[in-house]
Design goal:
Elements (H helix, E strand, L loop, with lengths): L7 E10 L2 E5 L5 E5 L12 E8 L5 E4 L10 E9 L3 E4 L7 E4 L12 E8 L6 E4 L18 E9 L3 E6 L3 E6 L12 E9 L5 E4 L6 H16 L3 E2 L7 H8 L3 H13 L3 E3 L4 E3 L2
Parallel strand pairs: 13-15
Antiparallel strand pairs: 1-2, 1-4, 2-3, 4-5, 6-7, 6-9, 7-8, 9-10, 11-12, 11-14, 12-13, 14-15, 16-18, 17-18
């Protein structure tokens, strides 16, 4: 398997030096893993997981640090510097990630968080990014089913909710009325397909739709009671934020779950606490 610049690779140690070890990077030749990143006890012939990129001298280098985003992925990162070349983003490595001015959808300013896509410049082998993500999404017709779980990255706030990148392929919208708890630009989280519109636009929810979302927390409530001597001081009168913090569901869903457990005669509903029936 070829070694990929801008991705994690599992490579074999071929030389040991005082300043680090050299790794067999297949078609890229031998690449240095500096001493500060060499795991204790690593020897010639053994393999190690490393990320490959260009250092400040434009030489290929390896690190065991895992960046916040790799080539071919989307992420929301914060700009930490801007100069005559472009904007530089913190992605967890010593050398910051560059978004050239030509790849900025709007002019980036220091301190801002932007959605971006990381790619490899095929001419220079430099890892760079673009904030012009729109052309990279919605290239195909969504084929999701209602209730299907997806991975999202929260993007910009709009008048109706938050734009989100869905499974690194589509734009979706998380409406304000479907929020439970607070979300922030750049959050990575699980969500559910609420609806795919006829025009291909995707509506998202942070909870499963219908009664299915109630069923998923029934066991969690029972487990919580069993682990707390059969008592719980969250009730149908508790604050929505307190309920979401514990069970990651809305107050309405929590109340439906309590109703279902009460009908099954598994709990007692008190004024200020819920108790498990013996």
């Amino acid at each position: 398997m070829p070694t990929n610049i801008g991705r994690m690779n599992r490579l074999r140690v071929v030389k040991e030096k005082d300043f680090g070890v050299y790794l067999d990077a297949e078609q890229l030749g031998e690449i240095l893993l500096p001493k500060r990143y060499v795991p204790n006890g690593l020897r010639v012939g053994e393999e190690v997981d490393v990320f490959i990129y260009l250092d400040s001298e434009d030489e290929l280098i390896a690190t065991t640090l895992i960046p916040k985003v790799q080539v071919g992925e989307f992420a929301a990162l914060r700009a930490i510097a801007v100069n005559q070349v472009g904007a530089f983003f913190d992605w967890g490595l010593a050398k910051d990630l560059l978004v050239p001015f030509s790849q900025q959808k709007t002019r980036v300013e220091e301190g801002q968080v932007h959605l971006l896509f990381v790619y490899l410049d095929q001419i220079t082998n430099r890892i760079v990014a673009t904030t012009k993500v729109d052309p990279l999404l919605n290239r195909q017709e969504p084929e999701y089913r209602t209730g299907e779980q997806v991975d999202i990255i929260v993007g910009d706030r709009t008048d109706i909710g938050y734009k989100c990148i869905v499974d690194s392929r589509y734009w979706g919208v998380l409406f304000f009325q479907d929020l439970v708890g607070r979300v922030y630009k750049g959050d990575h989280m699980k969500a559910y397909i609420k609806r795919v519109r006829e025009d291909g636009k995707i509506d998202l929810s942070l909870q499963q739709t219908g009664y299915k979302k109630v069923v998923t927390i029934l066991d969690q409530i029972i487990e919580h009671l069993e682990q707390n001597d059969g008592e719980m001081h969250l009730t149908d009168k508790s604050a929505p934020d307190a309920i979401f913090k514990e069970f990651k569901v809305s107050k309405a869903t929590f109340k439906k779950a309590l109703g279902a457990l009460y009908k099954e005669q598994k709990i007692n509903l008190g004024k200020d606490k819920i108790t498990l029936k013996k």
